[in-house]
Amino acid sequence: RKIFILKYYFLISFLLGCLGSLGLAPYNIFIFAILSLSLTLFILEKIDNGKKAFNIGFFYGLGFYISSLYWISISFKIANMGGFFLGSLAVLILCTFLSLFSALTYYLIKSLSIKHNILFNSILIILSFSIFDWIKGNILWGFPWTPISVIWSSNSLTLAPFSYLGVWGYSLVTYSLVVGIYLLYKNIKLSIYFVLPFILVLLLSNFIPRKFISVAENFHIRLVQPNIKQIDKWDKTKTLTNLNLLINLSRHDHKKNMDLVVWPETAVLFDIMDDNSTSLLLKNSFKNIENIIIGGIRKEKINKNRKIYNSLFLIDNISNTINYHDKIKLVPFGEYIPFRNVLKNFKILLGGLDFSSGEKLNYLELNNNVKVLPLICYEVIFPKTTSLSKKNFDLIVNITNDAWFGTSRGPYQHLALAKIRTVLEGKYMIRVANTGISTIIDYEGNIVDKINLGKSGVIDKKLVLYKKNTLYNYLGDNIYYALLVALALILIKINFKYGLKKKYERK
Description:
Elements: H1 2-7, H2 9-20, H3 30-46, H4 50-69, H5 72-78, H6 83-112, H7 118-138, H8 156-159, H9 162-182, H10 188-207, E1 212-225, H11 230-233, H12 239-251, E2 260-262, H13 277-283, E3 291-302, E4 305-316, E5 321-326, E6 364-365, E7 371-376, H14 384-387, E8 395-400, H15 410-425, E9 428-433, E10 438-441, E11 447-451, E12 457-468, H16 471-475, H17 478-506
Parallel strand pairs: 1-2, 2-3, 7-8, 8-9
Antiparallel strand pairs: 1-12, 3-4, 4-5, 6-7, 9-10, 10-11
């Protein structure tokens, strides 16, 4: 059995990576993610050199990322950007790039581990995985889509630690759990020590009393999911048809005043800021609706330079004012082309004008004094955008369009990350998709109501709006950085003692 494992370790690592991806949404079989990583550590222990360790990490990462992110290729087909062939090539390049960091993780562990020093090696594993996980999520334009802590997004009990530790701190504690499972066959006592932090964090985050702040009572909202096909959404001949569908869903069967109606990302393709006939029609189509949030395109011309923005507009029907937030975090190769000059010969990738990035996060305020954090599409996975601003808000509104990814795992993973963001911030989230999963999520990550993928409809709800201040609100990722420093100092201390012991033995 040992000979078989060592001979086919790269294939076994790849299959374990595929298995580990089932820990992510929509399957959420977190035990597969934990066990698959633990088993790669067992294989790592049996191989005899750094090159093989590199391969274990690389093939595990390749299996994990291809199984998790294959859905990106679907967007190339839908956007007519080279079809599945070019989409699959792009996914392979991305997954190979991410897998290199997994490979370096295993190589580093094998190279720095000390023979017969279980404590040192165990801490080294946690530290290495945690650091490279952070690097993968933050390098270049940033893509924190698949940190290990995402496997805990399925229910409010396992989501609770995010409000204390954040994404990266929770990942570190999860790696401690992985090591604890791995140590079961080696040292039961030490195994318990490494499992204990996860159990303690889970218990404390769920049972520490929390202070809630009331924001608004009888807050009446309507979420509109039109489920417009992507090919129809950008067809200019169907602009009015699409607009009428959205208006009719918004106005249908409501008699009492609504505080807020929300439409999805790029719901309208004309500039709402222009007073042309279409935007005037939009502004005058709603009665008994005090505020409406709409995803659209904002255009700007400075001298001879034209800019377009993916924007979220708030129309106050009481004062007739329009405020907006321009998307800050753009999707590379979707909304802009990185390295455009380098790729200038690949015309299939370079059609159209790049979206411009917004300069800052614009908080919006409804006419009932509810302050809104606006997030467009995958801005929801970047909590640093709010931690840097330190501005108080009461409600998160996330508009998106997951029609690019069909019925794949992508929309479900996006929703899982949105749930994590609500827990990090301790606020309700109103999430509205063209199609995807439109939903109301409370501050604990519970789904209050939803419209499923591929469905058209509305959610009408009267909410008693609460929020809570989380430890993450105050400290951000500083707990994670402190844990990294503490583990590094412990490693240095153990290594120093080990060096003194070896020196004494030689004498």
